[in-house]
């Protein structure tokens, strides 16, 4: 796994503990085992990173990518691509401290996947958070993966989400253009930062309630936690988000955010394909409380 430092003078062990979501003791062990390189060199846990330092983590686990049987809601599949409707609470791909029960483990049991990303994220062209539900495209071979990744990078992939957010949004539609980077106050969170990466989100109001608004969102960019950060930034955090917004939670099912529509050009046929999915129960059960 490769990571890039986004600010100066942050300790290597602190940085990795935040991006990998593991303890500093686990990170220290990986560093002592020479599983971490900074700009191709072995350094100590207290090494102070500089902006754009490249951190390579080569942490291997015996059962890191063990295929495991999983109930998959596959919307479409052919020899090149697969579209899956990810369930609530399912992590997309394995990482340090989380090696089984992910969507990738289930997909590997079902089919062969591309290895463009090496052993860390086979087949995964883009991802969504564990407690965000909805559609993902998956590449089954390297050629398909490379084409889909280029399409995503050039902003040709169509992604529409539906979210329930706190407060009444008065404008019928809007655009949020605010750069996102890792929070300086909490390394596990992202935040709007002047020195962050470009992030653009478009939204449209679907329905207004007394204390919340149902909206659809379209992404131009795909930053980590983008929708959740942007909506919190404008004062309308996603309902039931346990990380952003500091609002009361209805349950532990995660944020009311669903990747509802996905469209892309097929890597082999050149045909444009678009898929839709229904809101999951974890979302609709909370939505009913506002209706």
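Q: What amino acid sequence fits the structure above?
A:
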């Amino acid at each position: 796994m490769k990571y890039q430092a986004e600010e100066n003078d942050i300790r290597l062990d602190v940085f990795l503990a935040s991006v990998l979501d593991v303890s500093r003791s686990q990170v220290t062990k990986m560093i002592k085992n020479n599983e971490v390189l900074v700009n191709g060199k072995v350094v100590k846990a207290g090494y102070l990173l500089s902006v754009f330092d490249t951190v390579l983590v080569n942490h291997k686990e015996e059962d890191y990518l063990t295929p495991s049987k999983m109930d998959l809601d596959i919307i479409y599949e052919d020899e090149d691509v697969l579209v899956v409707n990810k369930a609530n609470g399912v992590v997309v791909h394995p990482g340090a401290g989380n090696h089984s029960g992910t969507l990738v483990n289930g997909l590997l049991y079902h089919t062969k996947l591309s290895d463009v990303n090496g052993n860390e994220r086979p087949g995964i062209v883009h991802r969504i958070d564990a407690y965000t539900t909805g559609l993902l495209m998956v590449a089954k071979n390297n050629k398909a993966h490379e084409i889909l990744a280029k399409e995503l990078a050039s902003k040709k992939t169509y992604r529409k989400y539906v979210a329930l957010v706190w407060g009444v949004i008065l404008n019928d539609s809007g655009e949020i253009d605010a750069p996102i980077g890792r929070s300086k106050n909490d390394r596990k969170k992202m935040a709007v930062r002047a020195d962050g990466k470009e992030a653009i989100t478009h939204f449209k109001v679907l329905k207004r309630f007394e204390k919340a608004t149902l909206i659809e969102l379209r992404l131009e960019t795909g930053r980590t936690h983008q929708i959740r950060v942007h909506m919190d930034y404008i004062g309308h955090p996603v309902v039931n988000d346990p990380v952003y917004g500091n609002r009361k939670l209805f349950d532990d099912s995660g944020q009311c955010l669903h990747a509802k529509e996905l469209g892309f050009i097929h890597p082999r046929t050149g045909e444009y394909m678009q898929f839709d999915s229904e809101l999951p129960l974890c979302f609709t059960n909370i939505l009913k409380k506002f209706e």
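Q: And what stands out in the fold?
A: Residues 2-57 form a domain with the Structural Genomics Hypothetical 15.5 Kd Protein In mrcA-pckA Intergenic Region; Chain A fold (CATH 3.10.290.10).
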